[in-house]
Amino acid sequence: MKVEDTFGYRVIYDWLNGKKLRPFKFQVETWEHILNGNSGLVNAPTGCGKTFSVFLGTLIDFINRHEDNFRKKTRNNLQLLWITPLRALAKDIGRAMEEVIDELHMGWKVGIRNGDTELSERQKQSRQMPEVLIITPESLHLLLAQKNNNEIFQSLRWIAVDEWHELLGSKRGVQVELAISRIIRLQGPAGNKIASIWGISATIGNLDQAMETLLSPLVTDLSNSSGFGKIVKAKIDKPIEIESVFPDEIEKYPWAGHLGIKLIDKVIPIIEQSRTTLIFINTRGMSERWYQEILNVCPDLAGLIALHHGSVDAELRIWVEEALHSGKLKAVVCTASLDLGVDFRPVETVIQVGSPKGVARFLQRAGRSGHQPGQVSKIYFLPTHSLELVEAAALKTAMKLNFIESREPMVLCFDVLIQYLSTRAIGGGFFPDEIFEEVKSTHCYREMTKDEWNEILYFISAGGAALQQYDEFKKVEIINGLYVINSRRIAMRHRLHIGTIVSDAMMKVKFMSGGYIGVIEEYFVSRLQPGDVFTLAGRNLEFVMIKDMTAIVRKSNSKKSKVPSWNGGRMPLSSNLGLMLRKKFNEAPLTLEQGIAPMDVPDIELRKLQPLFLLQHQLSHIPNENELLIEQIETKDGFHLFVYPFEGRLVHEAMAALLAFRISLVRPITFSFAMNDYGFELLSDQPIPVDDSNVYELFSQDNLTQDIQRSVNSAEMARRKFRDIAVIGGLIFQGYPGEYKKARHLQSSASLLFNVFSEYDPHNLLLRQAYNEVMDQQMEEARLRGMLDRIQRSKIVIRFLDKLTPFCFPIKVDSMREELSSEKLEDRVKRMQLQLSR
Amino acid sequence: MRPPIPYRIREQQLWLSADRCIFWEEAKSLIVSDLHFGKTGHFRKSGIAVPQTVYKEDLQRLINQIQYFQPEQLIIVGDLFHSRHNKELELFNKWRKNFPKLTIQLIKGNHDILHDDWYSAADIVLSNEDLQVRNFHFVHDIALTMKSNLQGRNGSGKSNYSFSGHIHPGIRIDGAGKQTLCFPCFYFGKNYAVLPAFSRFTGVVLIEPLKGENVFAIVEGSIFQLQ
Questions:
Q1: CA distance linking residue A365 with residue A279, whole number of Å
Q2: Closest by Cβ to B181, choosing from A474, A731, A829
């Protein structure tokens, strides 16, 4: 059916015409697919009418089917389910939709359902569902936990998943997959589908896979799934201009660091010159510092700048967003919290502080500026240490080549499945054989075996495989074959738990006297000693103790403080950006050796960095694309070995563990290792036996899988993965909001549980998942193999240093450390003691 | 099992076991702390599927220690049970009946919230605050005791050496190359000692001992004196 010939199209076209607008080509294309009952994926950047591409399509379809009375027809029950990753998005999208409905004089209602929705509103929805429901993945699961949930979805015709590229590759995306599999099966047997599914995604490297993952439950014949679903691409070119912020004297700019506050004087004029500026900072802690510093340097901006990050009170965040819309703010210091969402038209300029870690993220942030038609998106890159300037040059090239990262969908997330099955056990219960088919229809659990499935059922109904005595395990009960949760207490606790999939384990921070300051990662708190000073909400706080899952602090006048920086630090450099970086170093030495005038180097960043390159060149070596540089040096800390593959922090962590393990096979030796996005370091108290004779062997691909598994075990990467898994899988209860007493005696740390499971139930499903996640995501085994292959084909350059170089310095001074040892624990303790007493 | 380590304090002979308890030779007493029995059951009852094996093994370790040292009494400086009653405690009761001659002294910890009748039925002698046996004094949380005694005693209790638990002490060892390790430990200060938690289903809280105090780390089944 041609959409242009339909009545509904005329209605919408006339409405647009009245506003002097024309539909974009990709919108019309999407409308036609919707009319024809197809499913698919719309690929469009924000601010280009992607919402309307799907929403207006559903309206046209509805109008066509009710030509005579589409205006009067009310109480149509749920028609369109709009899944969005961020609460903040819901309001703006809802407002835009309501505007259309009002102007068309239609009787549709738009409802919002998320953690902020009032109980009365939710009850109203339960009595009469609105035609459009805008919902987060968590709230959708909460809806599935309601007893009467199957009635809600019977009338549903369209499921739209906004910002699917964000959800894909996260466990929240898996939540979406599961919820869709449920809704599709609720509507009838396979092949009899009513609802169609539309994803909306920004550009990523694997759009086909993204669509295939989303539509998986619709596909009845897996062997013949190719060609299923339609991808609609918006061809809208918006020019992006990147400009680096340079320090006056590159020689004096620090070699290490992640704050960049020294360049604040360069930021103020940028803010003053443009209408509204967004300043993206990688972590919450640092955004606090920047906010304070800007006010210190430029007090005139008080009241005109605001702070926006995940730990800021929700009400304040909403206020900031409103003020951004109305153009009341000159600048907002923010974190990834403003990555998503509708556009703030007054924003003219974006500043990225520190590495954006990936091409896609950088482009998305750049796209947040310049929304007036015909305007250029302007983004400034502000390096937090000098070498980071190379990234700006790499980003420019990557953007030119449209070299954008893929997002890999997650597979076999048993923790999410355990949570989901408990959700279903609350929402009326389930029969295993029925739900098994549903779950298998998702991309995530397609490869799940019957054994794994049975293990999960046993885990939630009997509390694990081990034989227990005098056991009172109680979670999911089996009544006449129906798996159901009857205990109100367990049900309530589970409902509170569903939302925890989003965040890292967070801890509240309070003054001893009782005042509430904010929240902070538990991981960060766990590394604090009483007396340590850290910064939150712009204040210096001395850590006193942890009590009732709350970090108790007192005010501190100490000048030195730690910045909670873990979250941003965890995001690794993407392989695309890494590749571009290595290529950029190709261009660097030209300015040094061949006497070409710096002006001939196309990238201004590389020209400015010349003094640094010169130093690196004199002290050591600048690796080109086909080389791997290794630096060795002895300092008072011990013997260091630095390697620079430029593959991102996580792959470096794996590589460091692997290399440490292989060296330790040569002789008993203990390493601690550190890494950043450019390279990694092994540090030992003994000389490290790496030289020309064995270096290629140490980077060999032979026995890779076994070696990884053996090295991971010691390095305890799995322990960290287990944190999230234990929370999502319901092993760690974070307490009722504001009601800690009732969770009494149920507190335990993920680390402790990890120990207990490792020792007493080593085959535990969730434990296995932790190890798998380490292999797939952390180690990125495929990427690791690719890297080793590359290294085998490249020239390895080993340099023995007298002084620290610009390359190794940042790794040495600020990085996280891991350990690997082939020595017996007892021997280590003895030796460490010996060293101390010397 | 490795042999215990001898340690003398206030002219009394102690034996420190890597299984996280102390045998006091003169009083024929085994001193333990923070057993948290029933913790796995409490978690499981609430739908958190931790393996019960850790509890059974804790119980078995206690039996082994009793058979090895042959004490006349067991002094528990608090947190014998983790929480409210659950069926797992039947395992404890069964075990209790196998040692009818053993006296069990429990100084109540913050986790010991069962009804007093329950303890007497299990033939456990309760002390609400503290317990004095010869020249040694036993409490659960030494910090609380010191706070409440600060005005009253003011150094007069110098001759009294206390044994306590509660904090699950752990010690961190730093080596060259920024290596660190962390272990549960025994702590012996000037006037009091803190025992490691007996249960292996417990974490540790790091302590920072002063010079002249003694610390013994428990490293994979053996004991190391660190200072």
A1: 10
A2: A829
Q: How far apart are CA A227 and CA A204, in angstroms?
A: 19
Identify the sign of the CA torsion A344, A350, A354, A357. positive
A464 chain-B contacts, CB cut-off 8 A: 49, 51
pLDDT tens, residue order, chain B (227 aa): 678 999 999 999 999 999 999 999 999 999 999 999 999 999 988 888 888 889 999 999 999 999 999 999 999 999 999 988 888 898 899 999 999 999 999 999 999 999 999 999 999 999 998 999 999 999 999 988 887 775 444 444 556 899 999 999 999 887 665 567 789 999 999 999 999 999 999 988 889 899 889 999 998 888 989 88
SS3 sequence of A407-453: CCCCCCCHHHHHHHHHHHHHCCCECHHHHHHHHHCCCCCCCCCHHHH
pLDDT digits (tens, 9 = 90+) for B78-99: 999 998 888 889 889 999 999 9
Q: Select from B52, B57, B200 the Cβ nearest to the Cβ of A468.
A: B52
Does the beta-carbon distance from B42 to A746 stay under 8 Å?
yes
The ipTM (two decimal places) reads 0.86
CATH number at residue B83: 3.60.21
- Burial of residue B21 (number of CB atoms within 10 Å: 0-12, 13-18, 19+): buried
Q: Do A529 and B206 count as a contact with CB atoms less than 8 A apart?
A: yes
For helices A781-793 and A649-666, the axis angle rounded to 10 degrees is: 70
CB spacing of B46 vs A733 below 8 angstroms? yes
Structural domain boundaries enclosing B61: 5-225
**Residue linked to tokens 């017996």:** A824
Given B86, B173, B201, which is nearest A832 (Cβ)? B173
Q: Which residues in chain B are contacts of A817 at CB distance < 8 A? A: 178
Degrees, nearest 5: CA angle B86-B87-B89: 80
**Structure tokens belonging to residue A737:** 């909001």
The total domain count for chain B is 1
Matching residue, tokens 């902070």: A520
What is the Cα–Cα distance from A531 to A529, expressed in whole angstroms? Answer: 6
Q: B47–A470: do the CB atoms touch at under 8 Å?
A: no
> Taking CA atoms, what residue in B is nearest to A465?
B51
Give the integer Cα–Cα distance in Å for B174 and A344: 51
Neighbours of A256 (CB within 10 A): 18
For B47, left (φ over 0), alpha (ψ -120 to 50), or beta?
A: left
What is the rounded distance in angstroms from the CA atom of residue A806 to the CA atom of residue A245? Answer: 20
Scanning A621-703, the segments in alpha helix (DSSP H) are: 649-666, 695-698
Q: Answer for the pair A61, A80: CB distance below 8 angstroms, yes or no.
A: no
Apex CA A323: angle with CA A319 and CA A328, to 5°?
A: 145
Three-state secondary structure call for residue A284: helix
- Residue B185 is encoded by which pair of tokens? 């430990």
CA A348 to chain CA mean position, Å: 26
Which chain B residue has its CA at the smallest distance from A733's CA? B48
Contact A422, A178 (CB under 8 A): no
